[in-house]
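User: I'll paste a sequence; please echo it back and then give the predicted structure.

Assistant: Echoing your sequence first, then the prediction.
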Amino acid sequence: CAIVFAAACGKSDDAKPGAGSGDKPAAAASPRDSVLAAWKSAQLAPTLAPATMGFGKDCQSGTVEGLDLVVCNYATPAEAKAAEEPALAWVGGVTGASQAHGAALIVIADRKKADPNGKTINRLMKLAPK
């Protein structure tokens, strides 16, 4: 995972002026932005819009690869971790996952049965920075 993530990030950094200077990209301003940047580096492009969720205040929901998705920002990693269990109610009885990645919470549900073996859900979670 780390190798794939590093390779993907390395490719995007090579195209930027001043690559290798150690500066973080401006797009990674929030925990959610870091997750989205990692997915974008792997050619995954979720469509997201602001959403009100019972388990988080600063959330966006949408889809990626046919999966329903919510990504929320929290003030601390502990708050994101505490929201994992309540977020599973949003997943419901379908295949899905709720995982904190630092101060971001990623919640994925396969309501359309687009990922019958769970490989895409697993890939999304592994690509997200901790």
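Helices lie at 2-14, 31-41, 77-82, 84-91, 119-127. The chain has five helices and five strands.
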